[in-house]
Amino acid sequence: MSHDARSPLIVITLGAPDLTDDPPTAVRKNTRYHEAIERAGGTPIGIDEHATNAERAAAFAAMDGLLLSGGADIHPSRYGRETTRAIDMQPGRDHLEADAWEVANERSLPILGICRGLQAINVFSGGTLIQHIDGHEGPSYGSGSAICHPVRVRPGTRLAGILGGGKPGAVVLSVNSYHHQAVRPADLASGLIAAGSAPHLGGDLVEALESADQDRFLVGVQCHPERTESTPEEFERLFAAFVEATREG
Questions:
Q1: Of 206, 203, 209, 208, nearest to 191 (Cα)?
Q2: Could you tell me the pTM of the whole model?
Q3: Res 13: pLDDT
Q4: pLDDT over 90 (residue 142)
Q5: Which of the 8 DSSP states describes residue 138?
Q6: Range with the lowest mean pLDDT among 67-76, 117-126, 160-169, 190-199?
Q7: Do the Cβ atoms of 176 and 228 come closer than 8 Å?
């Protein structure tokens, strides 16, 4: 698909498959993000930490929007904490995404975060994470059915409008759950609001967030909506809204 007025260029920051224990599955995970953006009418360009400085600069200069995807834990030093329960950290990816975030923010581009991407939005905005929670990480992708739980989307938020198709009132959906780290209300960065929450023994978790500035498309979801086999169809509206926001400039 060519990049033209009808097909915004979406940079997707990805985990490098060769840095995982299962590269073929990692490639399949990455492909799902590309497919979601293409279904929504965008042109995806995936980059990982192996991208050269020239490749990064070219991608960032051309991008109309940024998708921060799922993957390894963000290094706790990024949010001023010692490493306690964080695992499989990839500082090279943290650096790549921090640079992408800075460029996208400077240009006020639409940003969508998925799983790790939600956490990255919070960290890059000045928030923190809890390094481990129980009960939200089931079988790894491709090795069994996803565990699911309900998420209540807060009425009046951008996300509620998207997922609810513009209808008023609360939206409650069952979503997949592949994470062992989380954002609690107390961890949320200034300038962000909790757009969705999920119950947990230690208190509700922030499972969707967005900018408090309703003129800015900055949205993160903790689930993996690109994995359509375990995702309500309403989430296709999220990808569509994201790509449409990149067209609006």
A1: 209
A2: 0.93
A3: 98
A4: no
A5: -
A6: 160-169
A7: no
Q: What are phi and psi of 157, to 5 degrees?
A: -85, 165
The answer to whether 108 and 212 are in contact (CB under 8 A) is: no
Name the DSSP letter for residue 198: E
Pair 198, 204: CB distance under 8 Å: yes
Cβ partners under 8 Å of residue 166, min gap 6 = none
pLDDT at residue 17 is higher than 80: yes
Report CA-CA distances (Å) from 209 to 63, 99, 101, 117, 118.
Answer: 22, 21, 16, 11, 7
CA–CA separation, 194 and 208 (whole Å): 6
**Hey, what are 153's tokens?**
């989307």
The 10 Å Cβ neighbour count of residue 119 is 29
Give the count of alpha carbons within 13 A of 199, CB side only.
Answer: 7
Give the residue numbers annotated as catalytic, written as ranges: 115, 224, 226
Q: Which of 26, 30, 32, 34 is nearest to 10 (CA)?
A: 34
Whether the per-residue pLDDT at 83 is higher than 70: the answer is yes
Spatial strand order in the sheet of 147-153: 43-47, 9-13, 65-68, 111-114, 218-221, 205-211, 192-198, 147-153, 171-177
